[in-house]
Amino acid sequence: MQTDPLFLIIQIAIIIFSVIIHEVSHGWIANLLGDPTARLEGRLTLNPVPHIDPVGSVIVPLITVFGGGFMFGWAKPVPYNPRNLKNQQWGEAIVAAAGPLSNLAIAIFFGLVMRFALASGFNSASFYSVVSAIIISNIVLAIFNLVPIPPLDGSKVLFSILPYHTRHNQFFQFLEQYGLILVLLFVLFLFKILHPAIALIFGLLTGTPT
Q1: How much is the pTM?
Q2: Measured between alpha carbons, how far is 60 from 131 in angstroms, rounded to an integer?
Q3: Is 23 among the catalytic positions?
Q4: Per-residue pLDDT tens digits for 6-36
Q5: CB-based burial of residue 173 (10 Å sphere; 0-12 exposed, 13-18 middle, 19+ buried)?
Q6: Of the residues 23, 41, 92, 176, which is catalytic?
Q7: From the CA atom positions of the chain, what is the Rg in Å?
């Protein structure tokens, strides 16, 4: 793990802008589907100020990178009203999926950048460290947010797919009620089960191992 202070600052900047793009993507797609809430509240911007959550955007990234060797965080959720969506059947799932897909798109783009740089014989350890951090951070955000535990995006996709009556049984009510606690427990004790998937996707995108 990189411990250089400058690189840690770069990592924090990467995670901040990655989670901002994630959240803006939710709001942008919601706006396209008929809900202007995020746009009207000034959240369809890459300016970090309206999006930064002091805990999720600064404190948690610092704790995770020093405590676990990986970096994780979040921004303030972009607000939207699902009742405004034109597509009431799939609208919530589409809005929810937009965030992880935006992170996957970033990872793919910088994976191609790394492949091109390697093929060109470009030799800069700092460049590859930064690009690798961008790719890994966005893979982590994409995969983690697809875990089907509320309030993560994966739960919204899952609930949209399931029959209406299924979403209101005791199991899913339990998930809704204790979702934040379950997410915290997942991060603390089960996050490592995602490592093989993260490494596999990184290798597929860049052609190099993590």
Answers
A1: 0.88
A2: 21
A3: yes
A4: 888 888 889 889 999 999 999 999 999 999 9
A5: exposed
A6: 23
A7: 18
